[in-house]
Amino acid sequence: MLINNFFFEDLINAIYKNIDPHPSFKKVEFKVSFERDKPSLNILVSDGVGGMISPILYFSAAQTNILSLSVFLANALHAKDDKENSIDVILIDDPIQSMDSINILSTIDLLRSICLKFGKQLIISTHDENFFGLLQRKIPSDIFGSKFLQLKKFGVVASVGPILN
């Protein structure tokens, strides 16, 4: 039970379920193994009826990315500085690699709700212009106080105004 709390397993599973996970394997579990010379930590996923697999062996790139993002976000939400103060900013580089449109929309909704529910500032970098446009539409500046910047050329950043319908 201690390992589950250390890795925030419940929060990982809550996040994972919000981004349309694998159709069968929906529960993330951490298992420690002492079978070899050195202990190992394994991330496994279960289907709820006894089946358990290693996601790295069976998941697609998008499914693995969703799982990785879930683990990252759960840990980022609990991050503290060296004085045990909560770190209220999360930096993410291209969180949607290999995802289909449904998972991209679910990810944006999740990121928006994390900002609102946990009071975190989120800084996302991306080279994907479609994702950038979706972020502008789903987290608009006039409602959420979002800021959108574009790199015009090396060292030159420009603020981007809201999308007008």
Write a concise synopsis of the structure shown.
The protein has 165 residues and is α+β, with helices and mostly antiparallel strands.
The level of helicity is: 40-55%
Order of helices and strands, N to C? HHEEEHHEHEHHEE
Please tally the β strands and state the result: 7
Based on Cα principal axes, name the global outline. Answer: globular
Spatial strand sequence of the major β-sheet: 1-2-3
Domain tally: 1
What is the terminal separation in angstroms? 50 Å
The name of the CATH superfamily reads P-loop containing nucleotide triphosphate hydrolases
Secondary-structure-based class equals alpha+beta
Q: What kind of sheet is the major sheet?
A: 3 strands, antiparallel
Q: Report Rg.
A: 18 Å
Task: Indicate the mean pLDDT.
Answer: 90
User: The CATH topology is what?
Assistant: Rossmann fold
Q: Tell me the CATH architecture.
A: 3-Layer(aba) Sandwich
What fraction of the residues are assigned to beta strands by DSSP?
15-25%
Just give the CATH class.
Answer: Alpha Beta
| Sequence stretches where pLDDT stays below 50 over 5 or more residues | none
Number of helices: 7
InterPro entries: P-loop_NTPase (IPR027417)
Protein name: Exonuclease SbcC
GO molecular function: exonuclease activity
Keywords: Exonuclease, Hydrolase, Nuclease
